[in-house]
C-alpha cells in the first residue's frame, strides 16, 4: 500500500509539472504578444512624430507635421499626413525639348494655426520676368502666415537679383548659390524668421555632362501659431469680409489690419 501511495504521489507530481509546463508554454506567447502590441503602439506614436523629435503625450496638437517632396517629376506637400498641394508631371513639347511646367518656384501659404492652405501659386522662373509676380504676391500676404517656398528643377534660371535679395531678407542662406538643377525649400513665418531651409545638389546621370534633379525629402515639425485677429473683424457689416480674410490669403490691403481697412467705396 505504501508503495502504491508513493506511486500515486509521483504521478500527481508529474501531472502538476506537466500542467505547469503547459501554462508556461501558453503564457510565453501571450507575453510576447503583449510586448509586440506595446511595441507596435509605441512605433505608431513615433511614426506620427518627425524623426529624432519626441513630444510629451498630447503635445502634437500644438504642432503641425509637414512632409515636403521635390524631385524631377514635381513637388508635393502634406500637412499632418494629408496631401494639401501637389504638382506632378506637367510637361509639354517646347522648342524641340520637353518642358517641365511644374519647374520653378512654388509658394504655398498655410494658416499658421490650422495648417489649411490659404493660397498656392507656382511661377515658371525658368522664363524671364516671371519672378516679378512672385515678389508681388509675397508683398500681398499678411504677416505671421506660414510660407512654404519650393524650388523645383531649374528654378534659378532667370531669377533676378531683386528676388534673391527678397528671399535673403526673409532669412534664406543658400538662395544666392544654387546651381542648375538643385532642389530647395524654405519654411518661414512671414515677418518672424525662418523655420527651416533645405537643399540638395544635382548629380550627374549616365555621363558627366547630363544632369538631372536630385530629390529632396523633408519631414519637419513646426509650432502652431495663434492667429492675429484684426480689430475690424467684429465691426458691424464686416463679418463676411473677416471670414473671407481668415480663409484666403494674398489680397493685400483688402485684408490688412489697418483700421479702417481699404474699401472700394470712395466715401469710406
UniProtKB/TrEMBL annotation:
<dbReference type="InterPro" id="IPR039477">
    <property type="entry name" value="ILEI/PANDER_dom"/>
</dbReference>
<dbReference type="GO" id="GO:0000139">
    <property type="term" value="C:Golgi membrane"/>
</dbReference>
<dbReference type="InterPro" id="IPR052463">
    <property type="entry name" value="O-linked_mannose_GnT"/>
</dbReference>
<dbReference type="GO" id="GO:0047223">
    <property type="term" value="F:beta-1,3-galactosyl-O-glycosyl-glycoprotein beta-1,3-N-acetylglucosaminyltransferase activity"/>
</dbReference>
<dbReference type="GO" id="GO:0016266">
    <property type="term" value="P:protein O-linked glycosylation via N-acetyl-galactosamine"/>
</dbReference>
<protein>
    <submittedName>
        <fullName>O-linked-mannose beta-1-2-N-acetylglucosaminyltransferase 1-like 34</fullName>
    </submittedName>
</protein>
<dbReference type="Pfam" id="PF15711">
    <property type="entry name" value="ILEI"/>
</dbReference>
<feature type="domain" description="ILEI/PANDER">
    <location>
        <begin position="104"/>
        <end position="192"/>
    </location>
</feature>
